[in-house]
Amino acid sequence: MTDLRNIANYDYSLEKKFPEAGDFLPLLGTDYVEFYVGNAKQAAHFYKMAFGFQSLAYAGLETGLKDRTSYVLQQDKIRLVLTTPLKSDSPISDHTRKHGDGVKVIALLVESAMQAFEETVKRGAQPFMEQRVESDEYGKVVRSGIHTFGDTIHIFVERKNYSGVFLPTL
What are the pLDDT tens digits along the chain (170 aa)? Predict the structure, then answer.
């Protein structure tokens, strides 16, 4: 048994404090952060001009989406998705009315989206989206998700079999 009184609680290194503890949710990194915003085009312009982000992908009416428009921006390893509703009676509209512009999705890169979903739900997480396979000519992405705090969700992204720019749907 480990004496917890001798463990420093301020060391932020990546060294495991309890080597015998298994990692039930190995995260490979942050895949993207999605903001629900009132005007995605304007928000994208702001992030590009103020913070130096570059355009990576776009989805909207021109690409077949009828309910929203999304701009994907990237700077080095950081990807932002800025999404705005095209209809006033949508969950995206409801979210922006309630919270204003803000984070809706924190997407985490994992080895297995199914395993991440199962392990977190088994430990009490509320399901948001069961495993979903999305594919196009560049391969497939597997995603699943859970509710976290407030109206924010975590999406688990498995993209080891995908070579496209972002996602098959964007």
Answer: 566 666 665 555 556 666 666 788 889 999 999 999 999 999 999 999 999 999 999 999 999 999 999 999 999 999 999 999 999 999 999 999 999 999 999 999 999 999 999 999 999 999 999 999 999 999 999 999 999 988 999 999 999 999 999 999 76
Task: Tell me which residue of 88, 45, 48 sits closest to 68, measured CA to CA.
Answer: 88
* pTM of the predicted model as reported, rounded to 2 decimal places: 0.86
Distance CA(102)–CA(105), nearest Å, equals 9
Cβ pair 143, 156 in contact under 8 A: yes
Cα-trace Rg, the chain: 18
Distance between CA atoms of 119 and 146, rounded to whole angstroms? 11
Could you give the angle at the alpha carbon of 165 between the alpha carbons of 51 and 79, nearest 5°? 30
The H-or-E segment that residue 49 falls in is helix 40-51
Count of other CB atoms within 10 angstroms of residue 18: 9
Instruction: Identify the structural domains of the chain with CATH numbers, from first to last.
Output: 25-158 (3.10.180.10)
Beta carbons within 8 Å of 42's beta carbon, 6+ residues apart: none
